[in-house]
Amino acid sequence: MSNIIHVVLTGGVGSRLWPLSRKSYPKQYLSLFKDGSLFEMTIKRNQSLCGQVIVVGNCDNHALSREVMENNKVDYIDIVEATPRNTAAAIAFAAFAAQPDDILIVTPSDHVIVGDEAYAKAIKSGIEKANKGYIVTFGIQPTRPETGYGYIEYKDDKVLSFREKPNQDTAEDFIERGNFLWNSGMFCFRADTFLSELQNFEPKVYATAFNAWQHRHEGELDLQLSKEIPSISIDYAVMERSKKIRVVATSFQWSDLGSFESMYDYLKQTGHPVDENGNMVIGTDVYTAFVGLKDSILVHTKDAILVLQKEKSQDVKKIYNTLERHQSKLID
To answer: By the 8 A CB rule, do 244 and 134 touch?
Structure first.
């Protein structure tokens, strides 16, 4: 019988959550939440649904993943990328590590999901479709016209189109039309189904990833061979081109916590204090007073302070990009 394997993708630096999230300590490992880090919550959420775990990380963060896995006494396959090559290659490595008929449940490591029963129901529906040879994506019922997410246009379980992050007017149109879901970045498929479609649509990604995989050493991939792999997302490589795509419209609460606005909403919901004008402090117990400000966030770390209006949280990435251009150690 085929295994159900949870594949956890741990790449990314969470640049929109600077200064909390850094290259050496991305957002999925931050201890900001009552139930542990986002990475830890992701592992625990899928333990009862999957018989095995594969963690695909990189040389910067795999030690952080190992610490969580060892503390929770979870056995897993550790795949360490020498350099980031995007999600198509990362998922291919996991598929190479599995048996052809194994079912892979692929999830990011830094999302918040509320509603265990609804989540389990969605995953089981995805597994059923995957066993029939489909590549399954999970769509989230949108609660607002969000411009920070991609969208899935659908009818029943058929995907009509994938849409990039829209502007405000387009997002409002999607919500009004009612047959659009947020793209969660979660997938389910048989290992051989995915690899076959990847080889069909992106033979170079498949061949170079397989070559790097064959020359791995103790789970670590060779740097020079990895650099030959085209950096392409699973969305572009397979999801937007395959005829085997199906969608599960989910009913659980979901957030990618990809901005301080979404983090604010989640922290407030879980009891983090805000003042009478909706201002929040993250990262310090030092007494902080806001005068003449509403819905503002103060973020405190040992070497940086960020103050922002909640609705401007997407602009934090601009600060990160500026620091990166100046090769600042503040992003390391």
So the answer is: yes
